[in-house]
Amino acid sequence: MPLLSCTTEHDPDQTDRPAVALRLDFRNYVLEIPMHRHRKGQLVLALEGAVTCTAANGLWVVPPHRGVWIPGGQLHSNRATPNARLSYLFVEPGAAALPEQCCTITVSAMVREMIHRLADAPHDYAPDDQNGRLVRVLLDELALMPKEHLNLPVSNHPKIRLIADALTANPGDRSTLGEWAARVAMSERSLTRLMLTETRLSFGRWRQQFHLVVAMRELAGGASVQQVAGDLGYESVTAFITMFKKALGQTPSRYFARSGRE
Q: Do 93 and 62 belong together in one domain?
């Protein structure tokens, strides 16, 4: 299974065009692309399955028909679910009014289809031909797309990194704040202050956001609600659905059904 890398075939920085696109089926590639950066900004758009992006001291989840925007020059890595089909849109710095920070974006059906069309175009299109005109409209529309909060802030502080790594290995760990403080050799009060300083979230809110990121990835990858609820240590499926709905305004079934229609 080949690794997708910045070869001449795939390197977006080989062209100075305002935007270029690629379409990828991860059945043909390894599931994790290691840390890298490029001059162009990158929109990672999930068509099927999901991808998690590590960038800017955070973990960003991309469920179907959403995208994560990664500004140019930002070091990042991508990890896809085995069923993932993705589109990558690379945007030349300054070519569009896009955020200067990483963020998750809802992508409309129209924008998605324009990205698909661009993926079939040669990377050396002329600025004033059909593809050049398509790109101008695409970038204008992309800048208007609403933002979502499907990310987990992850500090590089070794104490918080230790907790994040332990929860990644065992997402269902329901240890209390006091128990985590003992594990990382801190007082509960000190860990509370550290978590707020480094992530701007309380420990309980941070762990809930971690569960949401994991749940989005696993549900998009084909896991059942019952399986995800159990893996995350929820006492019941109802409790998990309540958490999901409180965070995203819809139950998992409605959220992913809406994704399929957009």
A: yes
Cα gap 88→183, rounded to integer Å = 40
pLDDT in tens, 8-57: 346 888 889 999 999 887 665 556 778 888 999 999 998 888 888 888 77
Structural domain contains residue 131: yes
- Same domain flag for 190 and 211: yes
Q: pTM of the entire structure?
A: 0.79
Mean pLDDT for the chain overall: 87
Q: Do 19 and 95 contact (CB within 8 A), yes or no? A: yes
Q: In this structure, is residue 6 part of a structural domain? A: no
Phi, psi of 21 (to 5 degrees): -135, 150
2 found inside a domain: no
Nearest CA to 142 out of 114, 170, 184 is that of 114
The CATH number given to whatever domain includes residue 210 is 1.10.10.60
Please give the residue range of the domain that contains residue 143. 12-148
Nearest to 145 by CA among 114, 168, 186: 114
Task: Work out the angle at residue 211's Cα, subtended by the Cα atoms of residues 208 and 215, and round it to the nearest 5 degrees.
Answer: 140
Q: Is the pLDDT of residue 157 over 60?
A: yes
